[in-house]
Amino acid sequence: MPVRETEIITEEEIEKIAGKDAFEDIKKARGNIQSILSSLRSFPLSEEELTLLLKSIIASPDPDMGLNNLERLFAVIGKKRDILSYLFQDMKLFPPIARILGTSIFK
Is residue 22 within 8 Å of 15, Cβ to Cβ? Predict the structure, then answer.
């Protein structure tokens, strides 16, 4: 799978993938996604992986909470390659991770 050529994502791209009303605050969602993509610089996502990740987030009980918590998780684990490689070794892990993050308060 070819990786995304940029870490930059626009609100329009997010709406195209996730839907117009997927997030209550699209600007905050864009900031969170931008932060996640920056954290994944050493593990760049393909378009397909980014789409699956976003669709998994919006399928969670609270997409905004799920995205916020995912961004917080990446801020905490930082560049720890072993954790990142484990989380992203199989795209099938995206939906259950998103479900957990969309139902739990992560502090």
Answer: yes
